[in-house]
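Changelog entry: the DUF475 domain-containing protein record was regenerated in this release. Current contents:
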Amino acid sequence: MMRRAPHKPTLGYFKWALIVTLLGLALGGWVGWNMTGTMAGMATAFFICAVLAVLEISLSFDNAIVNANKLKAMTPIWQKRFLTWGIVVAVFGMRIIFPLAIVAVAARIGPLEALQLAATQPEAYARIMQSAHLPIAAFGGTFLMMVGLTYFFNHEKDIHWIVFLEKAMSHFATIKGVEISLVLILVLIFSSLLGGEEATTFIYSAIYGLLTFLLVEVVGGLLDASQKALSEAARGGLGAFIYLEVLDASFSFDGVIGAFALTQNLFIIAIGLGIGAMYVRSMTIMLVENATLAHYRYLEHGAFYAILILSVIMYVQTLMHIPEVVTGLGGAALIGISLWSSIRYNKREQVTPRDEKIRVGES
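Regenerated structure tokens:
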């Protein structure tokens, strides 16, 4: 369990995020000036960076809740590693290296050539990224769908928000492989709607997403089991760390692809989404240290429902365009409703944050 620091004001958790925001927006303005040499160009780049940051936060708030849920079971050293190394991977790996890798593979060019293409021919770079949207959506959607379904298809889960639905899923969790069966049924339905070569691409990409989830689960379990055998201090770490990194990557797919609707400039995209990633990190720390998930009992449920909806939206986006603002607002609305339900429950049962912290400390 992460050690709880003395009570810290909410703004204190966002100190580094605010610093990165100021530096990032200034850098974005400089990129705009350097590209156009005009105040209008600088203001446009500045504005796009701000919009992308908001987009990333809205798309990834559920990611912060899921991260906090996993982090609370990790050892302090691995919590710290995820919150430091993880942000480096999230910002540089997913916002810069990942798009470059996609373009390099799709265009069959080297990484340096892909970087040069992004800098000198952003329109061509964006076209290649957009052409890779279908396999990315199938892969990421499948992985996220497995994450969401695994949470609800759990026979040990005893707290239910949407009772009739979650009780049924908990009951059917005893059937081996029920989550995988549901995912495969959806894969077959959407591939039949696509048809032709696109259907084949969708199926292969979805299978890779499913295999990645299963491999991460297996490898994570083996790594954590071996660490437990080595020492008590090593518990809880590497397997959960890998799981969270892959989960972060899956959440990032939608934001990275969607960002090209606003700008084709890789560097502005990296700055804007990077700022948003810092806020997600800050929210994660706040949720863990304040035991927020323990006090608001349905908040996790809202986040995992948002993940399921995001995964379905990623599938639907292979057939039609859905604005990223719809995706972000949909997830935020679900989380907001789950928070409201939690507050209503606490008032009805007269549960205080102190009661919940005592209960968590005893368990």
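DSSP finds 16 helices and no strands in the chain.
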